[in-house]
Amino acid sequence: MASGKYKHHEHQGFQKGHRQFAGFQSGNKLGAANKGRIFSEATIKKMSKASKGRKHTDEWKAQARLRKGELSGRWKGGITPIHNQIRGSYEYKLWEDSVLSRDCHCCQRCGEKRISKLTVHHIKNFAQYPELRFAIDNGITFCRDCHKNFHHFYGKKGNFFEQVKQFLTLTF
Ligand SMILES: [Zn+2]
Ligand SMILES: [Zn+2]
Fold first, then answer.
1. CA 30 / ligand 1 centre spacing (Å)
2. Distance (Å) from CA 106 to ligand 2 centroid
3. Alpha-carbon distances, residue 69 vs 6, 63, 74, 75, 77 (angstroms)
4. Tens digit of pLDDT for each residue in 141-172?
5. Predicted model pTM
6. Ligand 2 mean position to 64 CA, how many Å?
7. Residue 43: which H helix or E strand, with range?
8. How far is CA 41 from CA 44, 49, 84, 85, in A?
9. Relative to the alpha carbon of 171, which ligand is closest?
10. In this predicted model, what pLDDT tens digit does every residue of 87-111 receive, in sequence order?
């Protein structure tokens, strides 16, 4: 397997995605759908009433302090908390933003544009390739549904670019 070949195809894949879904970017359809997602006044009133009614006891406050302490870096719970810490870091956010803007903020398979639906997938696994965690070439924008399907089809371990390339051509 020549790594030069891999690079070449990778770029073509992304370009193809852009052209294919360019039509989505000027349409109003998705914008109109978004307008429906607003809480009604009655719901807001209900929500604020509920939060006012809740009094924090001293015990609750002590527990909250304890929870905060657990979150501030005294983890001894194995590798997942460390990964979660990385995923919550500024560097990770920066990596996500870079991939999203390179991909024109749309899912490279289906063209989904709503930002709340988008996620960035690691082409080569986050866990297995620590050196590629923040490589922009190692990220691709998927919506949550396509992302779920990707890992449903290809599993969560040992992922590589050929899978992504194939996934982009699938219709389902
Ligand atoms: Zn993924
Ligand atoms: Zn999608």
1. 24
2. 8
3. 45, 10, 7, 10, 14
4. 999 999 999 999 999 999 999 999 999 998 87
5. 0.56
6. 38
7. helix 41-52
8. 5, 12, 36, 37
9. 2
10. 999 999 999 999 999 999 999 999 9
